[in-house]
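User: Hi! I'm working on a homework problem where we have to compare a predicted structure to a textbook description. Could you give me the structure for the chain below?
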Amino acid sequence: MATENSQPFRHMKWWGWGHEEVAFDDSNKPGLWPYLRRELQVPEGAAHTKAVAFESVQLPEIKRNEPFLAALRTRLAPDQIVEDKRSRLIHAAGKSFRDLWRLRQGLITVAPDCVVYPHSEDDVVAVIRAAVQHQVVVIPFGGGSNIAGCLEPHDQAGRMVVSLDMGRMHRVLEVDTHSLTARIQAGVYGPHMEEQLAAHNVTLGHFPDSFVHSTLGGWLATRSAGMQSDKYGKIEDMVLSLRMVTPQGTIVTRTVPKCANGIDVRQLCVGSEGILGVITEAVMQVHPQPAHKDYYGWLFPDFESGAASIHECMRRGCMPVITRLNDPQKTALSFAFKTSKPPLKEAVGKVVKWYLGKVRGIDFKKCCLMIVACEGDHATFHRVRQESANVFRKHGGVYLGVEPGRSFQRAKFDFPHLRDYVMDRNIMADVSETATTWANLLPSYYDTRRSIEQAIRDTGSAPWVGCHISHNYHSGASLYYTFGALQSKGRELAQYLYVKKAAEDAFMRNGGTLSHHHAVGSEHIPWVTDDISATGVAAVRALKHGLDPGGIMNPGKILPSENPLETWGLPESVARQFNNTGK
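Assistant: Happy to help. Predicted structure tokens:
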């Protein structure tokens, strides 16, 4: 296991997803690029555009607050305060489309002036105290995977900006196997955390798409959701207590299962996105490692029947740990994503497809793939698998066996690499997700999909829009949209923002939330007031002012300005241009 001051993690590449030596490989996916090229109407021989060379990137000049740095040097070791170009660049942004497009172009207008690595909560306290005294901005940094603009190091007052990288606070400090709790430092990355928990035969059960490159503190600060939320819930359902260092002192909550002590201060910290303070550790609810677990594939005749089957499983109490229902577009992409197979398996696959189409009456233009995972002790595993299968068959589902599910299991953390692949080909690709009630789910799905498709057409490109349901609750579920189009040359960011706005407007129109688990950051600020009301925004402002009166903690996030869309980057005049083009 790593020592306290070592780094059991590696930062992602500065211009994309994953480590420098890892890239998306389509050599064993012969159907993928032909499918994308056909759907997006990419011209034959279209040019590729790679990220600019690191050497050509110019960062803003460092602003040094020498009294602040002197205060830090009395407390921290030299290797805890770094200001080299690569470190500043890695911490200059997250991984939203807007972030990556600017990084790949070398258009870096803001960057932290230095990166600080605390080894302990005492180090965090020292940094925050010095920052308060010398008016230095602090931005907490986990793994850098955020796609909502939570990490942009911008300060309108022009103060020195510090990125506080929590990655060296990476230990599971204590596991109580009787109470099934674990006290964990906030900077631990997903794989390293699970490795430490596995030594006690327990798991947190939280596996977001960003699992490999994100941290517990980041999950808590952004209200993250993992693939197995159908069983374990979102991250806010797992936290029992936490510690958060603020400019006004350290918030400490008690480790108890439930309480009635007034306003839940713990939940004020969860989802605070670094604007109130720095989460340093948390006591989390953990679970025994499941004795049995397996993944499966099911094919439904349409999206409605798949959604109905999930709803019935929820009502009957037989929800698998994962039910990921792809709509027809996402299903087609999944089929195009298939790897090459030996001739015999290819022949068998053709027979199966013939059977599904001719005998079972599956329309491959409407069918929907669902990935299912079941886990638990012997009795629970087999009960849930059988009872859910009965429900799926009742709604027209066809069992595809274990291979589609196990294929998903092998590649489940690889999908974010696909965005770098398409951006190399000048394709805009991103996601927007929401949550709504079961009664609103299908109307919202169709209206939002139409809105995104029309917005892309307005920009002059052919649309690709897919959606999946992946987080399900007693009263509703999430809808997770993926969209793509050829970039509008010279108007790439405006095109993206125009399409993103169409998605968020549709969420609001259909009674959904602005985000189910990607946070507010700066990308979703224009819809905050609609989502939580003007009085709700005033409450957040009051909390911000009370804990951070100097405004040093991650400014410009969550709270809207007077003209949020203008600040966001999409002037009304630009939106009208696209709208007129589409008409």
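For your comparison, note the following. Residues 175 and 182 are 4 Å apart (CA to CA). The longest strand covers residues 427-437. Good luck with the assignment!
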